[in-house]
Amino acid sequence: MIKFVGIIKDHENFRLKIGRYIKDLAAPTEKEDYLDNVVFYLEHGVRVFAFLEEVFDGNTFIAPLVFYTDGKWIWPSYLPFYLKRGYWSLLPEEFINDVFKAKFIVPEVGREKLKEARQFFTEVYK
């Protein structure tokens, strides 16, 4: 089953009915030793959907709005930005364990798995 991770409602303009608001996240914590590896993983996912929209934190450009997958999880392009600022509460332990098991390398996502991820995203996006 595919799951979402790292969704921040402030950036979703009510498209997705999941996630948390920034103000509701746990306070930023110290940088984790494996931050760079997790960010690398997130930045190398397979694109599920891309929108003609940019994400900002106030006046700071974060990223174009894109959603990625590894075949099990779907995450937004802005997630690394918030991890670098210490918002580790965005990641469930199960996701971190999966990333470690994959040795920080996104597995190959086949055509059927990508189709499944897109269908799942579309169902939640409605």
Average residue-wise pLDDT: 91
User: How many discrete structural domains?
Assistant: 1
The number of E-state strands comes to 4
Shape: globular
The structural class is alpha+beta
Largest sheet: 4 strands, mixed
The share of residues in helices is 25-40%
Strand fraction equals: 15-25%
Spatial order of the strands in the main sheet? 1-4-3-2
Order of helices and strands: EHEEEHHH
Ends apart, CA distance between termini: 19 Å
Number of helical segments with 4 or more residues: 4
Which regions are unreliable across 5 or more consecutive residues at pLDDT < 50? none
Gyration radius, in Å: 14 Å
What does this molecule look like?
With 126 residues, this protein is of the alpha+beta class. The protein has one domain (3-125). The protein has helices at 35-43, 79-84, 93-101, 111-125, and strands at 3-4, 46-57, 60-69, 73-76. The chain has a 4-stranded mixed beta sheet, with helices on one face. Strand 3 (60-69) and strand 4 form a beta hairpin.
Question: How do the strands and helices of this protein lay out in sequence?
Answer:
Blueprint: E1 3-4, H1 35-43, E2 46-57, E3 60-69, E4 73-76, H2 79-84, H3 93-101, H4 111-125
Parallel strand pairs: 1-4
Antiparallel strand pairs: 2-3, 3-4
Write out key terms for the chains shown.
4-stranded mixed beta sheet, globular, 126 residues, 4 strands, alpha+beta
